[in-house]
């Protein structure tokens, strides 16, 4: 049995196989409508996250499976003080696979250690959100046709943005990657991203404050939201927030085949007039997320792809 | 330069990262050593690192846990002195994994709420320890 707690839980080869399956589902979703018949997904959401929960539920329903669970800790036994370890042992009796969102970092790992069913981390605090990473990678590959030799710009809050950290870690396993880290001084990537991931692997990166100057060289622009609560000074927040708004005018500086990604929700960091630009890929990400989660559920349950007759990779070894 | 008398019987904990000596003092619970003389020297000039802290303990140190020094600060050296002579110089080893030895202090970590949850840290390639749950790096507080 395998779990997905951190993006690095899967080897690069396994990740690529999973993406291949998600691509096949993308191209012919109806072929997969009964793959998980009579299988049950438990969505254990200790904090509300409507889009992620609905994406998991849609994925399971698309596979012909069923869904049980809770959308908020207030309606779970956690409100009575039950531990994560106990909850997952009980849920293991009711479902075949679980997706857990929890405000405490490491809670899904704690659950996985006591679980008899595969556990998927659907986001644990500011720590990790591996299915977001997988769908980001899927979107990049579908847009660019490859996952190597790309220049990827990350823009906005690179300090607290967990999606950025996970994606940098995962993409660092691929050859020829170059990262352009665009952020205010106050929201630079944490030192460990550089000292433990980029530098030891000899990965080319540059840190800059300027979005406009960076745009012409990017294959991918990954936008994030600058969060007000991270600042002590309202003036600094407003000054910095407004320097990282992607507008149609700024986008004119970017290559015609660049893709703009964003984990969503956005506030004002991408103006609405960018949505109609063919480079806007953020709504595609949400769609790809359903296919990626379908591929993940199938694989962790050991269900074969009806198109190939094979499981994406072995989960029992 | 400030000098502290040489030790006849005891230990010198040297090469402590400057500014963390007091935190280390508390983690080793040296305040409970009622029968030993303890000197904490802060920001001592060092050829290697510019500045360092040193702890000198004169007296019975048999009840002290020196093992923890390896994961608190891997640069540390421990010199054991008996009858005015150096009898042993130890550089503590860093175990790959620590279970319930140090505690994760991240308030957002599952260990902060989950009853019966072990505090587990693993050694990273850079010689630091990270909580397996939240991946927060363990640091000795100054």
CATH superfamily of the largest domain in chain B: Aspartate carbamoyltransferase regulatory subunit, N-terminal domain
In terms of quaternary structure, what is this?
A: heterodimer
The helix/strand series of chain B, from N terminus to C terminus, equals EHEEHEEEEE
Name the helix and strand elements of chain A from N-terminus to C-terminus, one letter apiece. Answer: HEHEHEHEHEHEHEHEHHEH
Domain Aspartate carbamoyltransferase regulatory subunit N-terminal (chain B): 2-91
EC number (chain B): 2.1.3.2
InterPro entries (chain B): Asp_carbamoyltransf_reg_N (IPR020545), Asp_carbamoylTrfase_reg (IPR002801), Asp_carbamoyltrfase_reg_C (IPR020542), Asp_carbatrfase_reg_C_sf (IPR036792), Asp_carbatrfase_reg_N_sf (IPR036793)
Organism (chain B): Subdoligranulum variabile DSM 15176
How is this structure best summarized?
The complex is a heterodimer of chains A (317) and B (142). Chain A is of the alpha/beta class.
Question: What keyword list fits this structure?
Answer:
heterodimer; A: 317 residues; alpha/beta; five-stranded parallel sheet; four-stranded parallel sheet; globular; B: 142 residues; mainly beta; Alpha-Beta Plaits; 2 domains; five-stranded antiparallel sheet; three-stranded antiparallel sheet; 2 helices; 8 strands; elongated
Account of the protein in words:
The complex is a heterodimer of chains A (317) and B (142). By secondary structure, chain A is an alpha/beta fold. Chain A contains eleven helices and nine strands. Chain A has helices at residues 12-27, 50-62, 84-91, 107-114, 130-144, 162-171, 191-198, 211-214, 234-243, 248-251, 282-300; strands at residues 40-45, 66-70, 97-102, 119-124, 151-155, 178-182, 204-208, 220-223, 259-261. In chain A, strand 6, helix 7 (191-198) and strand 7 (204-208) form a beta-alpha-beta unit. The longest helix of chain A has 19 residues, at 282-300. Chain A is globular, with a radius of gyration of 20 Å. The mean pLDDT of chain A is 93. Chain B has two helices and eight strands, in the order βαββαβββββ. In chain B, the strands form two sheets. Chain B has a five-stranded antiparallel sheet, with helices on one face. A three-stranded antiparallel sheet of chain B has the order 6-7-8, with no helix packed on it. Chain B has helices at 21-27, 68-72; strands at 10-17, 37-46, 50-58, 77-82, 85-90, 97-99, 120-123, 129-131. With 142 residues, chain B is mainly β. The mean pLDDT of chain B is 87. The chains are: A alpha/beta (317), B mainly beta (142). Chain A binds chain B through residues 83-85, 102-107, 109-110, 124-127, 192, 195-196, 200, and chain B through 106, 108-117, 124-126, 131-137.
């Amino acid at each position: 049995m395998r779990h997905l707690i951190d993006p690095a839980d899967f080897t690069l080869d396994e990740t690529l196989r999973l993406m291949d399956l998600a691509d096949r589902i993308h191209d012919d979703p109806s072929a997969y409508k009964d793959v998980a018949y009579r299988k049950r997904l438990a969505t254990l959401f200790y904090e509300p996250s409507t889009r992620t929960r609905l994406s998991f539920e849609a994925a399971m329903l698309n596979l012909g499976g069923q869904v049980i669970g809770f959308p908020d800790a207030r309606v779970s036994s956690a409100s009575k003080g039950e531990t994560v370890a106990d909850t997952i042992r009980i849920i293991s009796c009711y479902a075949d696979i679980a997706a857990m969102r929890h405000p405490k970092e490491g809670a899904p790992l704690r659950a996985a250690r006591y679980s008899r069913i595969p556990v998927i981390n659907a986001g644990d605090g500011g720590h990790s959100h591996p299915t977001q990473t997988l769908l980001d990678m899927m979107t990049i590959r579908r847009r660019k046709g490859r996952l190597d030799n790309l220049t990827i710009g990350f823009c906005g809050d690179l300090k607290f943005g967990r999606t950025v950290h996970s994606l940098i870690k995962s993409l660092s396993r691929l050859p020829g990657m170059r990262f352009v880290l665009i952020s205010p001084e106050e929201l630079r990537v944490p030192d460990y991203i550089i000292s433990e991931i980029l530098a030891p692997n000899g990965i080319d990166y540059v840190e800059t404050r300027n979005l406009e100057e960076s745009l012409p060289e990017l294959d991918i622009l990954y936008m994030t939201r600058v969060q007000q609560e991270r600042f002590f000074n309202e003036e600094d927040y407003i000054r910095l927030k407004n320097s990282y708004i992607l507008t149609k005018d700024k986008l004119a500086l970017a290559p015609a085949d660049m893709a703009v990604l964003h984990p969503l929700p956005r506030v004002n960091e991408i103006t609405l007039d960018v949505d109609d630009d063919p480079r806007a890929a953020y709504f595609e990400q949400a769609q790809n997320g359903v296919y990626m989660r379908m591929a993940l559920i199938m694989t962790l349950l050991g269900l074969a792809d009806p198109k190939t007759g094979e499981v994406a990779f072995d989960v029992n070894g | 330069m400030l000098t502290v008398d040489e030790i006849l019987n005891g230990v010198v904990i040297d090469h402590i990262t400057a500014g963390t000596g007091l935190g280390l003092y508390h983690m080793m619970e040296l305040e409970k050593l009622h029968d030993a003389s303890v000197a904490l020297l802060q920001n001592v000039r060092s050829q290697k690192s510019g500045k360092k802290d040193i702890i000198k303990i004169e007296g019975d140190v048999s009840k002290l846990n020196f093992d923890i020094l390896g994961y608190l600060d891997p640069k540390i050296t421990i010199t054991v002195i008996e009858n005015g002579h150096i009898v042993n110089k130890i550089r503590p080893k860093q175990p790959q994994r620590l279970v319930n030895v140090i505690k994760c202090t991240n308030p957002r970590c599952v260990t902060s709420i989950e009853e019966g949850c072990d505090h587990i840290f693993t050694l990273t390639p850079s010689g630091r320890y990270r909580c397996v749950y939240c991946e927060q790096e363990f640091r000795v507080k100054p």
